Structure formats: C-alpha cells, structure tokens
Amino acid sequence: MSERLFTPGPVEVPPEALLAESRPLIHHRTPEFRAELARALEGLRYVFQTDDPVLMFGCSGTGAMEAAVVNLVGPGDTVAVARGGKFGDRWLALAKVCGAKAVDIPVEWGRPTDVAAVRAALQANPGVKVLFATHSETSTGVRNDVRELAAAAREAGALFVVDGITSLGAMELKVKDWGVDVAVGGSQKGFMIAPGLAFLSVSARARETAAKCPTPRFYFDFARNLKACESGDTAFTPPISLVRSLLVTLDRMRAEGIENIWARHARNAAATRAAMVALGLEIYPQVPSDALTTVVAPAGITSDALIKAVLGRHGMRMANGQDQLKGKVFRIGHLGVYCPADILAVVGAIEDSLLSLGHAAPGGAGLKAAQKVLTAGGTGIAS
Description:
By secondary structure, this protein is α/β, with parallel strands linked by helices. The protein has helices spanning 15-21, 31-48, 61-72, 86-97, 115-124, 146-155, 204-212, 222-230, 240-256, 258-278, 303-314, 340-356, 365-376; strands at residues 4-5, 54-57, 78-82, 101-105, 130-134, 136-137, 142-143, 159-163, 182-186, 198-202, 282-283, 292-296, 316-317, 319-320, 329-333. The strands form 4 sheets. A 7-stranded mixed β-sheet has the order 2-10-9-8-5-3-4, with helices on both faces.
C-alpha cells in the first residue's frame, strides 16, 4: 500500500512538481537559471504579500529562523519572545545563542498568545529590539494574531519577526500590510515541494538593523545575499532542482489565487474539526490554525496506537504530538494540495480506525459532519 502524507510537513507534492525536480541539471551561473530564479522570487513575494526582498536559502526553516536572529540580534540586545510551543521555544534558544537578553513571554500550550500580555511585557521592558512570535504553532495547532502582535511591536519601537513556516501559502498573512519586518517560510509546507529550501522576507527596517548588527555570520548574511539578489544571482550554490520544482507550485498557487488558497485551507480545516467533534473527540488548541488540526486522543487510546492503525489500515500518515504532547494528541495536516475528497478520505480512515480500537462513536458521524461543512463551503478544489 502506498503511503499518503497527512502530516503538517512534509506534505504531498504535486506530480508535476516532482517531475520538474527530476529534470537534467543546468548550471546556476547562467542566464537560464537567473531567469528561473527571478520568477521564483517574484512568486515568493506574491505568496508573502510583500514587495520587499525575499531571500532564499538552501536549508530547513530553522536555518532561516537562525538567519533572522543572527542578522538582527547582537550580544546584550534585549529581545522579547512569545512562546507557547516547541517552535516558539526555538526563537528563545536562538536568541540566547547570540547572547541576547530575552524577555520570556510564556504562553500555555494550546492557548494563543495574549496580545495584551505582550504589550505589557514590552512596556515593562523599554528598549526591546525585536519581538519574535509564531503564526501557526505546528506543535500545538494554535493560530496567533500576527496582525495585532506586529502592531504591538511597532508601538514599542521594536522589529517584528514571525515564524510563518506552516502558515505561508495556507493562511492569511499579509507581510507588508501588517508591518511584519521578517517572515520565515519553508518549502515542505504550504509551498508543496520537498524539504530543503527556506525563505525569508526582509523589510527596510530589518535591512537597516542588519547593516549595524555585530553578530558574526557568513552563509546567512543578509547583505551578502541581498547583493547577490540585486545582480540576479544567489550568494552560494542553490538547490537548483528544488527551485525548478518550486516554480511549478508557485505557478499553481498564482493560478488558484492566494485568497482562494486561504479559503480552501480554512474550509478543509473547519470540516476536519467538525468531524472530530462529531466523533466525540476534543480539539486541542483554543484558537486553531487552518494549516493543521490537533486532536486529543480519546481515553484509553494513545495517539501512537491511532496513528499506527490509520497508517496500517489506510496507508495515511498523520503526525504524533511533540514533546509533552507525544502520545496524547494527533495532528492532521491540511497544507498544500488537499481537496474535499482528501478530507473525507482521512476523516473516514480515522473514524474506521477508532472503531477498530474500540472507540464508541456514531457510525458515519464524522463523515456527515465534514460533508456538511464542505457542501456549504463549495468544492474547494484547486485549479
């Protein structure tokens, strides 16, 4: 049985994007590749909703997170970090590596960041240079209010940096309009290609700050990479095949339209959440992300057992909880190509597997609940 990914990254890659990755290599210092790179960067700016530069790195999303920190934060600088999950914790760890004084704004797992608490922390700590936050916290499935967090940072005179790795290309995120100075993305999420590329938008304020930041860096240096972009090149050898694969998915996203993409993910997530509730399960996050649905495993059944059953019986792979949530929740990814048929398939697989494990639920309740949402919201099929 072939395996299908319903994880919040990596995700299912469209066949045409896989084919593009298999094309014969070309040299990256050629007019042909420069033209492809220019198209890719233009497409990224569309998804990021910005006219500021978007840099591309050959690395995971964490690499781009580190790039944001080492270009903006120096030893002794004061930064604020809104946590609330594994990846919010990562901002804190990266800031400490650079010798920053971190104002830790802890957030209970499963709850969104309290913007009022962030404003209070910024007021109590004048001189905060950067506020770091997460839009869609992949470990918990929480959505945070990026627009309001960006406003809070501006009011305090701080830069605002957001991890948009599981929200870009899936959820509304208007980088320029909302005043986001740096947004970070990754290829294996809403961009629908294999892992290995990370993206990072850089506002004028972020560029000015980076030019004065003393923290040592080389590969991730904004100035070096921006200079290469201005001449139509990359500073270092790029993953050429991944860029070509990215061109295919960016064209697909442009054809569908970014607002339609946001609406499709919202509809698929709403249908999944309705199905899980109809099956007698609890949605873990208080304010759910549309990139994934995080569900509390029912009493007497671990998430490990359910994930194993869904994979074994239906060939669909979901994700377990991370850190303190491992074995307690399961995560269903909605990123990328999924249409209503995919949502109904994974809901049916979960329902069947729960019954096989002894969970009592009304037969067909999950599918009926999902169908009701999907029917009310239209087809949601990507063009």
